[in-house]
Amino acid sequence: MSNSDLDQKAKSILIENDQGGYTVPTKGLYPYQWNWDSVFVALGFATFDQDRAWREIEMLFQGQWRDGMVPHILFRKDDPSYFPGPSVWGTDGGPIPSSGHSQPPVAATVIRELVDADVTGQSLDRAAALFPKLMQWHRWFLAYRDPQDLGVIAVIHPWESGRDNLPDWDDALRAVEIADIGPYERKDTSHVDPAMRPQKADYDRYLSIMAACRAVQWDPAEVARTCPFFVADPGITFIFLRANRDLLSLAERLGRVAEASEIRGWIAKMESGAKTLWNEDLKAHVAFDERSGKLTDGISSAAFLALYAGIRDETTMASLQAHFDRIASKVRFLMPSYDPDHASYEPLRYWRGPIWAMINYMIARGFAEAGDTMRAERLRVDTASLIETGGFAEYFSPETGAGAGGGTFSWTSAIWLSWASPTHAEQAA
Ligand code: GLC
Questions:
Q1: How many domains would you assign to the chain?
Q2: I need a labelling partner for 212 at 20 to 30 A (CA). Which of 250, 288, 330, 335 fits?
């Protein structure tokens, strides 16, 4: 397919996955509105329909809970082809049936981008309407995912990280007692090859965490206090730190003085808190299990998001460049979700090795902003080649480039349109 054919295909995937204002990640495997998927999807829509891009994010925020959380899945209609559905979650926190935890908060960053890209200035009104909701969501993260004020954000479930099956969760997950789950039937393994999906022992524990949170009615303070899984995640921490910088820029433009000063405090706290995640042996930021007090021992693709978060001191920069080059010498395509030199690396099992286009996009932005345009461009070119050969797949093998997981994926299409496509790169040049 030529590049312009791929541009057309990417648009048609977004249009086909559109459910009337919100977009499913892919039909079949993921039939609902997912949080960070929708936000990346907005970037794709923005390349040809600004109004529709805003709509995507506005519909996501319609599901915001009374306590400020924006859930990871909104179950706008029941679909028996997905498990675990609304009855298993048993939540009651917001206006739309939903899951019980959140997902990486990329919204403030993308909203800022939509505002920056709009020369008419009309977008600022839409941003103004979303601003208080963003503030509430960010306050929720700080109150309930950093109750000890460490300056890092924890996840209460591997799914909250958006990087569901990452080796970093293994030890913390093993410590979760399997309880209150009863018999259940997974649906994911009927849509894609079970060899690429999490194993049953993991799934039992995913459901046990949900049962423990249901037992405290998903009360966020109680969840933070008692949840058997509570792991500070470099991915969500860096995405949140970055999002706060973008939220600050919005606050300044909107003249929200008090909020701007509140956000500056968050940024300062997180810049220093991020040091908690630094693994001196590995020379990279890793996950930190707040229940056991242990740092993990592997480098995930999120370590590279330090730059995207604006952490660009010499040590971090030099270490990440060295890791980047080492990993590039091991695999054909970048950036594998887990270090190919680690024993837990598996090129095709979800989040234990495969490449995601939107992660590449964020890592590349960080490198570009830090002045390393060479590595940023390498990521863009790799992402484009993966899509050219593997199609708009959910994820890709770093070794063969094969597309895997679900097909006709929304965020892969959106990242193609907004960043990876040579057409876009030429226009931006
Ligand atoms: C998987 C991914 C998660 C994503 C969802 C829908 O669960 O791990 O990040 O949001 O699929 O694409």
A1: 1
A2: 288
CA angle 424, 428, 429 (to 5 degrees): 120
Distance, CA of 97 to CA of 212 (rounded, Å): 19
Q: Is 35 in a helix, a strand, or coil?
A: helix
Centre of ligand 1 to C-alpha 238, Å, is 18
Q: Is 113 a catalytic residue?
A: no
CATH number at residue 105: 1.50.10.10
Per the structure block, which two tokens stand in for 93?
């926190």
First to last CA, the chain: 23
Output the CA 15–ligand 1 centroid distance in Å.
19
By the 8 A CB rule, do 404 and 414 touch?
Answer: no
Mutational pocket test of ligand 1: of 13, 26, 37, the residue with most ligand atoms within 8 Å of the beta carbon: 37
Is residue 164 flagged as an active site residue?
yes
Dihedral (CA of 358, 363, 365, 368) sign? negative
Beta bridge partners of 33: 74
Check the CA dihedral 75-78-81-86 and report its sign: positive
d(CA 330, CA 326): 7
CB 228 within 8 A of CB 208: yes
Q: Residues 75, 97: contact at Cβ < 8 Å? A: yes
Instruction: Identify the pLDDT of residue 31.
Output: 95
List phi, psi (to 5°) of 192.
Answer: -135, 165
pLDDT tens digits for 339-394? 999 999 999 999 999 999 999 999 999 999 999 999 999 999 999 999 999 999 99
Residue 429 has pLDDT above 80, yes or no: no
354: Cβ below 6 Å to ligand 1?
Answer: no
Phi, psi of 147 (to 5 degrees): -65, -20
CA 115 – CA 252 distance, rounded (Å):
13
CA distance 274 to 150: 8
Phi, psi of 260 (to 5 degrees): -60, -40
pLDDT digits (tens, 9 = 90+) for 90-101: 999 999 999 999
Residue 136: burial class (beta carbons within 10 Å; 0-12, 13-18, 19+): middle
Phi, psi angle pair for 219, to nearest 5° = -65, 120
Q: Which domain holds residue 350?
A: 3-428
Closest ligand 1 atom, residue 37 Cα: 10
